[in-house]
Amino acid sequence: MAQEITHPTIVDGWFREISDTMWPGQAMTLKVEKVLHHEKSKYQDVLIFKSTTYGNVLVLDNVIQATERDEFAYQEMIAHLALNSHPSPKRFSLSAVVTVAS
Questions:
Q1: Which of 75, 65, 20, 24 is CA-nearest to residue 44?
Q2: Where is the chain membrane-spanning (predicted)?
Q3: SS3 call for 46
Q4: CATH label, 10-85, candidates 3.40.50.1580, 1.10.1270.20, 3.90.1300.10, 2.30.140.10
Q5: What are 8-62's pLDDT values in tens digits?
Q6: Which of 68, 67, 42, 57 is nearest to 10 (CA)?
C-alpha cells in the first residue's frame, strides 16, 4: 500500500492559504479529498491535490495558482491581453497549457 502524502498546509483535511501580509484577517481554505503530488523542487514547493469543490488544485509555495473550477478565468485574461495588444487582430492562437492530472 502506498504511503499517504501529507503537507504542512493541510490540517484536519483542509488546505489553508493564510497570508497576513497579502490579505490581513482573511484566509482561503479548501476541503482536500486527496493529495496527488508533493515535492520540493530546486525553486518551489509544489503541491497538487484534489479538492471536494474546486477539482484539482495546483499550489506553489503554499499559494493557490490554478484550479479546475475557475481555470477558464485565467485563460480568458491571457487571451484578452494578447488580443488587445494588436490594433486589428484577425486570427488568434493561445498556447498556454496548464494540466493538473491525477
A1: 65
A2: none
A3: strand
A4: 2.30.140.10
A5: 999 999 999 998 888 899 999 999 999 999 999 999 999 999 999 999 999 999 9
A6: 57
